[in-house]
Design goal:
about 0% strand; Helix Hairpins; mainly alpha; 3 domains; two-stranded antiparallel ribbon; Volt_channel_dom_sf; ion channel; flat; Four Helix Bundle (Hemerythrin (Met), subunit A); 2 strands; about 260 residues; transmembrane helix; Potassium channel family protein
Length: about 260
């Protein structure tokens, strides 16, 4: 009986049935909901209602975590994965108030959970034509947005209690965007060595991801041109022959040498 339940759980998380697909979409919506909740509560005082919702989210994430451990075939590898560690920190931070601990700021680590939704790419590709047509652009944009969420969270978590200029997520996001775009108005600065290191990370990695998105938008690495023989859709912009079948291609170019 235990094995049957485990198999059913595995099919729910990894199967291709409509029920499994709806379940994974539900997990994605839940992840986004927790992130929006964390952002919204940064603008208010944490009362009984917020603490209760914290506990509900913490229990739900804990149940999801236990299920993933149960179906994992390589549990040690799963347990040391960065996303798993982020989930553990999220569980602790959501439930910490019940134990009287002041670890509420760790809730931002839940934003790392967005990275885990990349397994949805195959499903999104199959379900949405718009996603299939613009996958490179959407993935590059998601990469940039995830980075901005993570860095905004780090700025908020490390600065809100010591830096009077960082009072909520809006302040942290404002700093992250100005640093990422190298605008640097200077009205908000991060304090301490850790703050300076975060600023460096935002500028170096953020600009790299931003340029990657710009490259995909204006000069993509691949172009969509269906091969007349085998149907392969993605080719190098200067391809003369299909890499899959060798057929001659006539991809329209911009005249660059």
């Amino acid at each position: 009986m235990a094995k049957t339940r485990l198999d059913r759980l595995r099919l729910l998380y990894e199967g291709n049935s409509r029920r499994a697909q709806r379940f994974r979409y539900g997990l994605l919506i839940f992840d986004l909901g927790t992130i929006l909740f964390v952002i919204a509560t940064s603008f208010s005082q944490h009362g009984v209602v917020v603490e209760t919702i914290d506990a509900v989210f913490g229990v739900a994430i804990l149940i999801d975590f236990i299920a993933r451990v149960a179906i994992s075939t390589q549990r040690l590898r799963f347990l040391i994965h960065p996303v798993t560690l982020a989930d553990l920190a999220s569980i602790v931070s959501f439930l910490a108030l019940l134990a009287g601990e002041g670890l509420g700021f760790l809730r931002i680590v839940r934003t790392l959970r967005l990275l885990h939704t990349y397994q949805m790419l195959a499903r999104l590709r199959a379900d949405f034509r718009f996603f299939r047509m613009h996958e490179d652009i959407l993935v590059a944009a998601i990469n940039l947005l995830v980075f901005m969420f993570v860095m905004t969270g780090l700025v908020y978590a490390s600065q809100y209690s010591t830096n009077p200029q960082i009072d909520n997520y809006a302040d942290a996001l404002y700093f992250t965007v100005t640093a990422l775009t190298t605008t640097g108005f200077g009205d908000i600065t991060l304090t301490g060595t850790s703050g300076r290191m975060i600023s460096v990370a935002v500028m170096i990695f953020g600009v790299t991801l931003f340029l990657r998105l710009a490259q995909v938008l204006f000069r993509p690495a691949k172009v969509r041109y269906p091969c007349p023989d085998c149907g392969l859709k993605l080719h190098d912009p200067d391809a003369v022959h299909c890499k899959h079948c060798g057929a001659t291609l006539n991809i329209e170019t911009e005249g660059y040498y």
